[in-house]
Amino acid sequence: MANSRRSVARLEGGEDAGRGRGARKQSPRSAHGDWSPAPDRPDPVAVLRRQAETRVQELLPIRYGRMLASAFTFYRGAAAVMAVDLARTPDSGLVVQLCGDAHISNFGGFAAPDRRLVFGPNDFDETLPGPWEWDLKRMCASIEIAGRDVEMPAKSRRRIVERAVRQYREGMREFAAESMLDAWYERLDADELTERFGTRLDAEGEELFAHTFAKGRRKDSARAARKLTEEVDGELRFASVPPLLTPLRQLHRSSDPDERESYVRELLDAYAAGLHADRRHLFHSYRFVDMARKVVGVGSVGTRAWIFLLVGRGGKHHLVLQAKEAVASVLEPFLGASEYENHGERVVRGQRMMQAATDIFLSWQRSLGLDGLEHDFYVRQLWDWKASADLSRMSERGLLTYTRACAWSLARSHARSGDRIAIAAYLGKGEKFDRAIAAFSSRYADQNEADYRRLEEAVAAGEVEAQADV
Fold first, then answer.
1. What is the pLDDT of residues 209-258, one digit of tens each?
2. Strand pairing partners for 357?
3. How far apart are CA 206 and CA 208, in angstroms?
4. Cα 410 from Cα 392, distance rounded (Å)
5. Which of 208, 312, 340, 419 is the residue whose CA sits 20 to 30 A from 153?
6. What gap in Å lies between CA 197 and CA 191, rounded to an integer?
């Protein structure tokens, strides 16, 4: 079972194949497939409502509306629900830096500082040290659920899940054979994804990946400025599209522009102070123009998310940054508190540990909100070549290619922070673990459908309010 005795969740050192093989006795690989809901399992809607208590209440109907779009979107927003269930599953006792919400829509393309498009996990709001199996189980259950969402046959879904686990297992063995430095340098460039993981993709499948990555390369600050702004008195300002995009001038308790300017200046000065000197020099080459609240994601809706519009000297070359609220990870009740007091720092340090390359503007801060309370944030570019796959358009072979890439990337991320040699030894060369995780994924997908129906019933009964996305 997950080690809930830790008061603080921390990474562990060591490289020990014997420890990995020994872990099979306390946690047999086949045991990972034996899952059923606990008799005292909490009501999933109650879990979601507790999680939302500190969020912006007026935005919560959007969150529930987005979760109701399908069983898969429900799953995307229900990391807190699954954390309760994962805490009661077997694990090997081997700790890594967890993504914490490793469903397959949280993988994609992002720009490295060398301006290459890199593929891997790209959302770390829930990151925390913990059992590597938790990330893998969340990822594999999402594959099963996504396959059901597009009405893929059960045999095909199981095959794809098993191949994903196999890819994780073989990837971890690959990293275990390398030096730690070589494993640390490993990365997957998007341009090589289909060549490396493509499974007899047809021309349409190849084109879908090529289009996704080409579109991702166009998704940058310049495009954000074009899509999210309007011209006011000769200069761009964020457009007013409430509740999804609401400029600060419409939210701030004061109508005095000088007071708003002072508020923003304090935020940006605190952010700049946390950057390395070279990045701070780059940041100061831009001038602040406007700030707005933006609704983002599915499970994140209701957390405070701000975007900042800045412009380079001469009024050209816009930069759009996002400050996203970071609260306690949904894993902390089961794994222990983060060792970092600031949850923005927790997210940033977890991201730097797991990602092959990170945004040059990535940092964290704590600041006073409009509600008069302090909140933790992490800051990055809003869009920096963000490439997200449209899972609904993928063929069976396309989904297989994509999920193999996800699994290899997850293994690479775990190998950077955990005992890759022990994990590889635990997994072994056979398919026993692959089959167990496929069984778990199918059973958990059944539970997810039941939880989704429970949210539908709660909305129909007026327990929670849901609003269709606008």
1. 999 999 999 999 999 999 999 998 888 999 999 999 999 989 876 677 77
2. none
3. 6
4. 22
5. 208
6. 11
Three-state DSSP class for residue 24: helix
Side chain identity at residue 326, one-letter code = A
What is the model's pLDDT at position 91? 97
Residue 249 carries which DSSP code?
Answer: G
Residue 45 in contact with residue 458, Cβ under 8 Å?
yes
Pairing of strands 117-121, 128-131: unpaired
User: Is 376 within 8 Å of 344 (Cβ atoms)?
Assistant: yes
Percent of the chain that is helix, strand, coil (3-state, to 5): 50, 15, 35
User: pLDDT grade, residue 33 (50/70/90)?
Assistant: very high
Q: Are 306 and 291 in contact (CB under 8 A)?
A: yes
Please spell the DSSP secondary structure of 136-159, one letter per residue.
HHHHHHHHHHHHHHTT--HHHHHH
* Block residue for tokens 């059944």: 446
Pair 89, 444: CB distance under 8 Å:
no
What does the alpha-carbon distance between residue 216 and residue 116 come to, in Å, rounded to a whole number?
11
Q: What are the two backbone dihedrals, phi and then psi, of residue 365, each rounded to the nearest 5 degrees?
A: -160, 165
Residue 267: Cβ within 10 Å count: 21
Q: Show the tokens assigned to 406.
A: 């996800």
Give the total residue count for the chain. Answer: 470
What angle (nearest 5°) sits at the alpha carbon of residue 206, between those of residues 203 and 211? 120
Structure tokens given for 64: 């529930």
Q: How many angstroms separate the CA atoms of 423 and 16, rounded? A: 9
